[in-house]
Design goal:
Shape: extended
Number of helices: 8
Number of domains: 2
Structural class: alpha+beta
Number of strands: 5
Strand content: 5-15%
Largest sheet: 5 strands, antiparallel
Helix content: 55-70%
Order of helices and strands: HHHHHHEEEEEHH
Radius of gyration: 26 Å
Strand order of the largest sheet: 4-3-2-1-5
Length: 230
């Protein structure tokens, strides 16, 4: 009995899938590893220098004192940077870092990525949509930032098209709402797709090859009804 060719996958497809899984694992592990290492460095630094001072001052040791001091330190740092004097001093420190050749690139890239996933940035985007842009047959990912109307009253989306792999830069276009297809992705998933250059992506998307937007379909059907009525 002949086997179904669709039920068997080729070695090349298995290899591609394994490579994709491996790359996804790397991209997941690297930021987690960097975050853990930075927190451990901060914890060891505070525990080594501040914990003995606190123990000497209060006269007894407290289990987990280094962790408590790290949380307090991060909170005080945020409190300091959010006031007027702290913002000015931090701006001077930041300008100094941006003038150092190698450090400036690392700092600027890290800051942009962190700001991309900050709560303020996520609130600025309402949803992720697919657009047939820059020409028919090519699809781009867009982040809806608001809504507006044209002179004739047609509803438009204000859409930010981000660049890859740095999604903090890009451009804004205004697209009829009927021409935008909801991606069903969260804001975080959209940014992950962009930052990874498409490596972290769903296997199926909501757009179709040669798909007409709902707005164009409505116009076409309306013309057809007019012609039939005449």
């Amino acid at each position: 009995m002949p086997s179904n060719p669709q039920s068997q996958s080729s070695p090349a497809s298995h290899s591609l899938r394994l490579r994709r899984i491996f790359i996804t694992g790397i991209l997941t592990a690297i930021p987690a590893y960097i975050t853990i290492q930075l927190l451990l460095f901060l914890f060891r630094f505070i525990d080594q220098f501040l914990a003995p001072v606190v123990v000497r001052f209060i006269g007894f040791s407290i289990p987990g004192l280094g962790l408590v001091l790290m949380v307090v330190f991060i909170f005080l740092l945020g409190l300091f940077v959010t006031n007027f004097l702290g913002r000015r001093l931090y701006a001077y420190f930041e300008n100094f870092l941006l003038k150092v050749p190698v450090v400036s690139s690392i700092y600027n890239t890290s800051k942009q990525i962190v700001q991309t996933f900050s709560p303020d940035s996520r609130k600025a985007f309402q949803k992720v949509v697919w657009l047939e842009y820059p020409r028919r047959g090519l699809w781009s990912l867009g982040f809806v930032t608001g809504a507006s109307q044209s002179g004739d009253g047609e509803a438009y989306y204000n859409i930010f098209i981000a660049t890859t792999p740095n999604p903090t830069s890009g451009f804004v276009i205004f697209v009829p709402q009927a021409d935008a297809i909801d991606s069903n992705m969260t804001i975080e998933e959209g940014f992950k797709l962009l930052i990874s250059g498409g490596m972290i992506s769903a296997e199926r998307h909501r757009f179709l090859k040669g798909q007409e937007s709902p707005g164009k379909k409505a116009v076409s059907s309306g013309k057809g009804r007019k012609a039939k009525g005449n």
